[in-house]
Amino acid sequence: RKARFSFDAAKGCHAALLLLAEWRDTRAYPLAIRLLQNPQFLRSVIGASDRPFADLAAMIVGVCDGGLAPLRDTIFDRRAESIIRIVAGATIPILSLRCGLAHAATLRFYATVLDTLLATTTARAAFDSWVVGQLAEDACNLHPVELRPRLEAVARAHLAPRRALTLTSIAHNASLPEWD
Length: 180
Prior knowledge:
There is one protein chain. Helix content is about 70%, strand content about 0%. It has 11 helices and no strands.
């Protein structure tokens, strides 16, 4: 059940999550996911900075124990608001690039996301275009070579917005040298 937050309670939870993230306390991960899934909490902390999605994602990264299943479930929860799914999706590349999440784990995650998109006959109706665009663009940036066939299939099926994924961007990213 979703808890109803007053503005002050949400700010208090935000401050507590900031401290727990700073201390890298992974026991707070379930709490962070529950807060992420509360639109009232998200709306109250959005105005706190000029980069709200990245800041919230960074807080979740700070307490993440490496398990992507709760984030994946949040992204695929069709009842969740777009903002919730966008913040959950923005957390994956930060985990990969800043926290050293295993290459294989992010590859499996994005492969699952793209396969789900391709297998869903009504993908455009089932998934918000912003969420799909963000996930497709992140997959193309992080794993362009390994996921190239899936990314091209998503682009050809017009499942991702053109601003996020084109055949040209996939080919360009796949041709770049690998970096660590």
